[in-house]
Amino acid sequence: MTGATGRVALVTGASSGIGAATARLLAARGMRVVVNYLRSSKAAEEVVAGIEAAGGQAMAVRADVRETAAIESMVEQVRAAWGGVDVLVHNALIPYAVKSFQDMTWEELGGKLDAEMHAAFAVTKAVLPAMTEQGWGRIIYLGTGLSRRPREGMIALGTAKAALEQFARYLAQELGPQGITVNVVAPGPVESRMADTVFDDAHKQRQVAATPLGRLAYPADVAQAVAFYAGEDNAFMTGTTAAVNGGMSMD
């Protein structure tokens, strides 16, 4: 991609799934990629090794995005090696309860809201100075179709990601004059994540049946949308949400 060479991209939660697919794609397009992870050091190093084997540049950095000090330490480590972060892809999935409102405690709902927003707030604060200084930046948050279309048991995730989506719009308005775009990529059900949830195969088949394109998303499908928002080609889209759901829901 024209002009992408040398840009530094930080992808949070990049040791597997959408984050790993995004890290690989951005590296293939010439960016130097920071593969952030929390627990899966082996998986993160494998993503880095794969990128390097393909001729790209990457480094794995451990940090819990729920902790401000850890984020600042990570960004400082990146700055020392490569300079400021040009592209932030905030993908790290913060745990949440899957249950009905009636069964849920405030700690479960409020805790997810607080952790979701605090992570987005802290990681964005940490990368913003370098973007502002150079008058160019790309911020992409991973959302979910559940922000707009409820599904049984998903009130904690859907509510937290809806807050994140509105946060992104406010940032887009404020940061636009400084050459920084802020967008959200909202996947529908993703093939790799279905295995991690409490949903069974019959549920998955219902999701597929409700999707005009006839399958669930692959991590690579989501990564393609992220990569567009992250690049030089995206000069005039900000404050938008890209639904990557195969037509399962259409606004």
From TrEMBL:
Native species: Streptomyces sp. 900116325
Protein family according to the UniProt entry: Belongs to the short-chain dehydrogenases/reductases (SDR) family.
Lineage of source species: Bacteria, Bacillati, Actinomycetota, Actinomycetes, Kitasatosporales
InterPro entries, per database record: NAD(P)-bd_dom_sf (IPR036291), SDR (IPR050259), SDR_fam (IPR002347)
Record-given protein name: SDR family oxidoreductase
